[in-house]
Amino acid sequence: MANWTTILFLLVAAAFCRSSSAATYTVGDALGWTVPPNPTVYSDWASTKTFVVGDILVFNFASGRHDVTEVTKSASDSCNSTNPISVANNSPARITLTSAGDRHFICSFPGHCSNGQTLSITVTSTSSSPAPQPSSRPSPSPVPVPVPSPSPSARSPSPSPSSTPSSSPVPSPTPSREPMTYIVGDSFGWNVPTSPTFYDSWAQGKTFVVGDVLEFNFLIQRHDVAKVTKDNYASCSGQSPISLTTSPPVKITLSEPGEHFFICTFAGHCSFGQKLAINVTGAPATPPSSIALPPSDTVPSTPSPTTAPPPPNAAASLRASAFFATFLAVAVALFY
Ligand SMILES: *[C@@H]1O[C@H](CO)[C@@H](O)[C@H](O)[C@H]1NC(C)=O
Ligand SMILES: *[C@@H]1O[C@H](CO)[C@@H](O)[C@H](O)[C@H]1NC(C)=O
Q1: Within a 13 Å sphere around the CA of 292, how many CA atoms are in the beta-carbon half?
Q2: Can you name the residues that pair with 181 across neighbouring β-strands?
Q3: Can you say how many angstroms the Cα of residue 79 is from the centroid of all Cα atoms in its chain?
Q4: CA–CA distance, 182 with 47 (Å, rounded to integer)
Q5: Mean pLDDT for the chain?
Q6: pLDDT of residue 238
Q7: CATH fold for domain 2-124
Q8: Ligand 1 within 6 A of 74 CB?
Q9: Ligand 2 within 6 A of CB of 279
Q10: What fold characterizes domain 181-281?
Q11: pLDDT single digits (tens) 239-275
Q12: Residue 150, exposed/middle/buried by CB under 10 A (0-12, 13-18, 19+)?
């Protein structure tokens, strides 16, 4: 009886594995395909995934400012795009992983690959057991610069390494509270975004109060932070900025109420959306004793992170439930 059950289990499992469906992975998740704020972002991203033949990579990037160049391993190691295997210039670039083995993707724009815009993955074939290192798959562990979980919808606040995931929900912002530090763009940092309204969306729903701090994280000498007038913000002019800061991380304390405008003065960056406009409200009333928010390193989070499970996990659980349904049906049919 036990043997029968085991055999049945293996048969169903084998049948099931062949029918598992392909997964689609958005490279870098919400960060997209760009010069990352930290050179290990894409290797960290890939280390939490198991790629199988038939899976699809989607690269989202600003067309004309990046590309997806597939190269050999040695060319990837040396960031040499002279003899590419393929080049995709238009976003989104969808690449189906048609065979097992290692694949290497870089951006051929000068300096991008050497600053971390490079992705190497290993694709396994479907017939082998799912994962060579099953232990590395389960949950994306916190990494120095975490990439938001791959929920394609709402941009989730950056899970900072020190954050306590299940602390009591942050109360809705009120005029009276401790000063807060906002990480501009969360884990995306201060970068040329894929969408020109990225920083508008980031600022939306946040309440900035006099005394709060904006922290801009970016690669030195590839971006800067200029505080500018409303007109210069609108026209993306970095001429005579109110202030200009070039060394990350740039921390700017919001000392006055009203509108504040920030741009990157590097050519083209602002017009591609690397610009931030915020409204700062008046000074907080009395520092309350009831709410003690950690003053820094805390990105305000929506009270309940309604995180849909990431696609691969969703697919996995679907596979699991489909499996058990099939197993039960077969078992019932055989034994009753
Ligand atoms: C890049 O690779 C090509 C061959 O694919 C080689 O001829 C060239 O010297 C390489 N460039 C550098 C800078 O290594
Ligand atoms: C700031 O608030 C005023 C009044 O609500 C609004 O007209 C303006 O567009 C806001 N500016 C920004 C940058 O959000």
Answers
A1: 1
A2: 213
A3: 23
A4: 28
A5: 74
A6: 92
A7: Immunoglobulin-like (2.60.40)
A8: no
A9: yes
A10: Immunoglobulin-like (2.60.40)
A11: 999 999 999 999 999 988 999 999 999 999 999 999 9
A12: buried
Given the structure tokens 């070039």, which residue do they identify? 246
pTM as predicted: 0.41
Task: Report phi then psi at 43, rounded to 5.
Answer: -70, -35
Of the pLDDT bands very low, low, confident and very high (cuts 50, 70, 90), residue 148 is very low
Per-residue pLDDT, 133: 44
Strand order in the sheet with 181-183: 181-183, 213-216, 250-253
Residue 322, phi then psi, degrees to nearest 5:
-60, -40
Q: 181 C-alpha vs ligand 2 centroid, how far in Å?
A: 21
Does 168 sit in the ligand 1 pocket, CB within 6 Å? no
Among all ligands shown, which has an atom nearest to the Cα of 83? 1
Q: Which ligand is nearest to the CA of 80?
A: 1
Distance 113 CA to ligand 1 centre (A): 15
Nearest residue (by CA) to ligand 2, atom 10, is: 279
Is residue 165 exposed (0-12), middle (13-18) or buried (19+ Cβ within 10 Å)? exposed
| Atom from ligand 2 closest to the CA of residue 260 | 13
**Is 202 a residue whose pLDDT tops 80?**
yes
Q: How far is ligand 2, taken at its centre, from the CA of residue 259, in Å?
A: 7
Kindly state the DSSP code that residue 22 receives in the 8-state scheme: P
Residue nearest to atom 1 of ligand 2 (CA): 279
Give nearest CA residue, ligand 2 atom 5: 279
- Kindly list the domain boundaries of the chain, sorted by start residue: 2-124, 181-281
How would DSSP label each residue in 92-153?
SEEEE--SSEEEEEE--STTTGGGT-EEEEEEEPTTS-S-SSGGGSSS----SSPPPPS-SS
3-state class (DSSP) for residue 46: helix
- pLDDT at residue 292 tops 50: no
Q: Are strands 243-245 and 24-26 parallel, antiparallel or unpaired?
A: unpaired
For the CA of 261, the nearest ligand: 2
pLDDT (0 to 100) of residue 30 = 86
pLDDT score at 179: 87
